[in-house]
Design a protein that fits this description.
2 copies of one chain form a homodimer. By secondary structure, the first copy, chain A, is an alpha/beta fold. Chain A contains 11 helices and 9 strands. A 5-stranded parallel β-sheet of chain A has the order 4-3-1-2-9, with helices on both faces. The longest helix of chain A is centred in the N-terminal third of the chain and has 16 residues. Chains A and B meet through α2, α7 and α8 of A and α2, α7 and α8 of B.
Chain lengths: 264, 264
């Protein structure tokens, strides 16, 4: 039987995670729920984030899913446990924070290299990344910094992904980390859309998109046939699973996202 | 008895309207409701905007108010009639669109001067400004243009009100209107905070903040003693009314707004 994977995001950013899931989890089908009626989560209070996330998770559970991926970093940071409590122990719930931490640590060029998490303000405030890094590799937090980049999401949603104003804003956020290079973890699902701009703004840094690691862990949890190197593997040319799209406010889906609603 | 005026906004932008109300409506008290749990409205669908606005209006009505000012342009554009229906005919409900239109027309240097409304995307989509201009002065719409400026609100809320990136973004939005100068109407409550930047970006244009006109019309509707020239009149030194603050998500009130919560 075909596996059905629910993907929850606060808006359209989770499409970057969905793209990786489709490449790695061969043959699975997907139900994507974007809470566009309440986006952005990144500027909301923990209480609001939890209430909204649990409501969305409960909606997704009604669609007969075999696993729930919380693609939104803000929701993963604040609401993973409340979601798990709400959906019950039989449904695997996978967030993006822990897989992202594992991907970042795997990319470290040397043990004492700087680690930088780029995220929304709410994610940074949550402390979820430092907790997860410390749990995964005790002591590593001495090399860890976090940077909130609140204007990047509105600019990306405006379609300014190759605009000099976005580049200038990026420089404002990450310019100060120009010393010793290390690993920068994209802790917000929108950021992979401008990964090349991060790489240009942070010469020498390894910029990590956690989506592939998330997808690998989902495939493992569901014991799905897993495409190991989706970027180069010919099996990505096989037919990929169906996607059911679901938005709490369809009119609020930004124009640029429509072009990405059928990722290749 | 002291008049109590309810001021509804999607977030903190309505503080610019509240400031004018306190200057003009001598002696009134205020209840300000900012729907920070659901901000921004400017990227939402009409249905969402109406549902949220009506819910907030109903909350404000429970606070024993004598008039309801819908300070948010997006809510005024889409939800004024639903709000009026919800609160009933005995409570005056005053939006910002019609007063803004009257203020813009009063500022016209000559009848055929260009008119430009600067607003959120949802406000522009609503067509509320063209309708109001046409109702107020038939035929004037041939001189009217509207420009959505979606990135200004997040930048202002980020506290970048004197940042070169905000100036560059502003130029991106209004640079094309550099020909014959006319009247630019600030159709979003955040924009008065950067009025001087608009004036610098649009040389020769009259930049109109509708808040004073809104306040004058509220004073008239409630037959309140009205301070005619609040900017110069000594009576502004008199004690001003109390403000009750109310936010649907207090944690989501941006830092910069806290400095403005007790306007002078």
């Amino acid at each position: 039987m075909t596996a059905r994977i629910g993907v929850f995001d606060s808006g359209v950013g989770g499409i970057t995670v969905l793209e990786a899931l489709r490449k790695v989890c061969a043959g699975a089908d997907f139900v994507y729920l974007g809470d566009t009626a309440h986006v952005p989560y990144g500027t909301k209070s923990p209480e609001q984030i939890r209430t909204l996330s649990v409501a969305c998770a409960k909606q997704l559970v009604t669609r007969d899913i075999d696993a729930l991926v919380v693609a939104c970093n803000t929701a993963s940071s604040w609401a993973l446990e409340p979601i798990r409590e709400a959906v019950g122990p039989s449904l695997p719930v996978i967030g993006v924070v822990e897989p992202g931490v594992r991907a970042a640590l795997a990319a470290l060029p040397r043990p004492e290299a700087p680690l930088l998490v780029l995220a929304t303000r709410a994610t940074v405030c949550s402390g979820a990344y430092p907790r997860a890094f410390e749990a995964e590799q005790p002591g590593v937090n001495q090399y860890l910094k976090e940077q909130a980049c609140p204007l990047l999401v509105p600019m990306i949603e405006e379609g300014w992904t190759d605009h000099p104003i976005l580049e200038a804003t990026l420089k404002e956020y990450v310019g100060r980390y120009s010393g010793q290079p290390g690993v920068a973890l994209l802790g917000c699902t929108h950021y992979p859309w401008i990964q090349s701009l991060f790489e240009r703004a942070m010469p020498g840094w390894v910029v990590v998109n956690p989506a592939l690691q998330v997808a690998r862990e989902v495939a493992e949890r569901l014991s799905l046939p897993k495409v190991e190197n989706p970027e180069t593997n010919a099996s990505t040319l096989l037919p990929q699973g169906n996607i059911e799209w679901w938005f709490t406010d369809l009119d609020a889906v930004p124009q640029f996202a429509f072009d990405r609603l059928t990722p290749g």
